[in-house]
């Protein structure tokens, strides 16, 4: 019995916790050492709001850097979705502000699609994303 108690103490378990869990589950072996399996990310043709938030941050970053022919990767670790944002063409003026269009890839599992967006320069030199939606060729 002493060996079991020493082993439990060194293993990080407490007798009281073990007994309470065992009683709650109706007996049986409970170790608590193996976490339940994580649910697999759900593939979707449509980005989640969180996916779009990551893409918006990447778009703002790549436009702020202003490099020619540059792209910025993005990834949402919660959903597994990822992609990259690439500015298109040159800046233009709209409503007295400097604006720029961009294209963002969206990959979630085996699903791949494109998003089209527009951003305009805001205060402090950062870019404010005005639109970001599925790209429809046409």
Question: What is this structure's SSE topology?
Answer:
Layout: H1 2-10, H2 15-24, H3 49-65, E1 72-75, E2 82-94, E3 97-108, E4 111-121, E5 127-134
Antiparallel strand pairs: 1-2, 2-3, 3-4, 4-5
Mean pLDDT: 76
Tell me how many strands there are: 5
Q: What is the domain total for the residues?
A: 2
Quickly give the structural class: alpha+beta
- List the total number of helices: 3
Strand fraction equals 25-35%
Distance between the termini: 76 Å
Low-confidence stretches: 1-30, 35-41
* Order of the strands making up the biggest sheet: 1-2-3-4-5
Largest sheet, in brief, is: 5 strands, antiparallel
What form results from the Cα inertia axes?
globular
Question: What is the H/E string?
Answer: HHHEEEEE
Helix content: 25-40%
- Tell me the radius of gyration: 25 Å
Summarize the structure in words.
This protein has three helices and five strands, in the order H-H-H-E-E-E-E-E. With 138 residues, it is of the alpha+beta class. The protein folds into two domains: 1-34, no CATH class; 49-134. A five-stranded antiparallel beta sheet has the order 1-2-3-4-5, with helices on one face. The chain starts with a helix and ends with a strand. 20% of the residues are buried. Residues 1-30 and 35-41 have low confidence and may be disordered.
């Amino acid at each position: 019995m002493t060996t079991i108690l020493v082993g439990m103490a060194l293993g990080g378990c407490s007798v009281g916790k073990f007994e309470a869990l065992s009683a709650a589950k109706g007996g049986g072996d409970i170790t608590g050492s193996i976490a339940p399996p994580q649910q697999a990310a759900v593939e979707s043709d449509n980005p989640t709001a969180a996916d779009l938030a990551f893409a918006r941050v990447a778009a703002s970053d790549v436009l702020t850097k202003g490099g020619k022919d540059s792209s910025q990767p993005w990834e949402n670790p919660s959903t597994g979705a990822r992609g990259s944002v690439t500015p298109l063409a040159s800046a233009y003026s709209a409503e007295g502000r400097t604006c720029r269009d961009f294209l963002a890839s969206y990959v979630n599992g085996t699903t791949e699609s494109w998003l089209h967006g527009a951003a305009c320069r805001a205060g402090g030199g950062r870019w404010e994303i005005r639109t970001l939606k599925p790209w429809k060729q046409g």
